[in-house]
Amino acid sequence: MVRLSLALAMVRFAIPKMHIKGHLVLCQIFFSLLLILGSGMTDGEGIERPWSMIGGLAASTRVCGPGARWDQLDDHWSFWNWMKTLGLVLLLRRRMDRAAEECAKQEQDFETLTLGHADRVLVWKQQVEEFEADNSMPNPYEAKSEGLSENAVRKMFEEEEAELEKAGAVPIHDVSPTEFIAALLDAEADQRRIRGLVDLKKTRGTSGGVSLRRQRRKLNRAIKRLRTLQLTYTPAALRALDALKLSQETLAERVPLFLPSAIPRLDRGHGGCREGLVEIERALRDAQCRSALTSLQLQLHVKSRLLTYKRQHSRAQAMNTRSRTLVDQNERKILLHSEKYQNAWRALVAIEGGEDKVSWRKLEKGDIRCMEDSQEVQRDVQRREKADRAQKARDAELQQAGLAKLPTSTSAMDDEEMEDNEDEHEVESFSIDRSNRLDIAREANAVFKHGESRRQVSWIWSNVSNTSEAVEEALRIEWAKSYARLRRWKEEVRILGVEASRIPLSFAAEERVWLKRAFDVDVSGLGAEHAEGAIAYAAKHADMYRNLARRAESTLTSPKLTRGQKGERDVFQVYAVAGDEDLADGLVDSDDEDEHGNASDDEEEEE
């Protein structure tokens, strides 16, 4: 227990950035590297890279013996480690330049956000500092629940009904009003699910092994029981149903259920709708909006990971088919959750008597997107505007030359745009239906290009309503995350600076190790020939690490090159050690690559 307590006190647990999007939103708040002090821009995925590279070797080594397989894997890992050692300087230099630029951008954005809410910033900053000092304090990055869940609402009304019965109230039916409204909402959910299966069957030619006929029979029986209950609780619903004169061939998923919100206000009076039913539906619909948004966020997270996996790893027909099936299933879930929210929102509008009286916002097609989609749309608009300008310039040149305009195709796209929009067209190929219902789901078609540090979000990710308290909470969360992003980028700049400064020192230490080995060669014990070879081998490695240290210092301190510029070519001195401090004459140009991979070509400088 003592060891565990020490570990918990000294270690902060986190989820790697590539994997965290597949977790719940609560996990993303408590275990995000972006919110952990001192993490900088660490992604936590370092171990995944050699695993992905070694995958190609697995098939060829599985038939080897244990010793041969071990040696072969060890050789490959050692080679990758050496290549990483050689490329670490350039990698850190690129990261340093990028971190400095991004830190400046985040600082400017943070200052703008802070100036706009200067009266609240001190309180928000204190909340962040208190939480970082003690994680048991309220989390400033977490959106507090503004209401009860669906199950909690049902339980609350059921307890109230039980109290009324204890007080002597006589129920009008064995099924309580709460159970009646809940049964109607369950039937509505079944209708959404069956419509999704029907649309999927139309497109894919299969219903995924589910019998639609059996599902419809089950739903018809449930609706028949509900009609009996409506005779007791909402007679106006049955009158409205008779006025529709529905055909006998109407499918179960298309039959109107007529919840209290669907009954006109005038018809609810005079016994058309029992008192209290509208209030029960209002509370349950409010909980539905909340749960639907949470589920929609989760499915959009899952979708982004599915599309990323499909684009990067799916090859050949079999793998693409499996990946496409997973994306289709996820697309259907997004459609169901978006419909659930829209149905609940429309019911609240009908109950309250107007959109302005409902705290929840209307869910538009463009709102159903991942966190980075707004930037993707902006990039698409910029590319199309650039293409339009180029087309107009070509048309003007042709007109000036007296030539006719070239025919153009609105569907034609350049190679870059095709590559950037590959996943978008891939998602759009999943056409369940031509109605607006599928158009809503199709808008959720983008993949994460960046993480939390560079995102722009749709309102659905704030998971708040339009009340003043909710807006205040959303502002606090956005400011706290902006504050965290700025500090992580500043930490990244400092961390990279320290790491970069230690690279030449590490190479210099390796040089001293090999020099010591050269001086420690026992000439008398090994003999002149063997001693000379050992000294030459040690001197060669010492020279290699000396050159690496010099190149590291030059790369890290040289000014940043713009596109088209070339850096100065470094010239390093080669020396040998022969027991004494005899130095070899001559210089070697670093442009030559030796057998150790010690190269310093212009291409690396330009990177």
UniProtKB/TrEMBL annotation:
Coiled coil: none annotated. Residues 372-397 have a biased composition (Basic and acidic residues). It comes from the Eukaryota. Residues 372-428, 583-607 are annotated as: Disordered. Residues 413-426 have a biased composition (Acidic residues). InterPro entries: KDZ. PANTHER family: CXC3 LIKE CYSTEINE CLUSTER DOMAIN-CONTAINING PROTEIN, SI:DKEY-29D5.2. This is CxC2 domain-containing protein. It comes from Mycena indigotica.
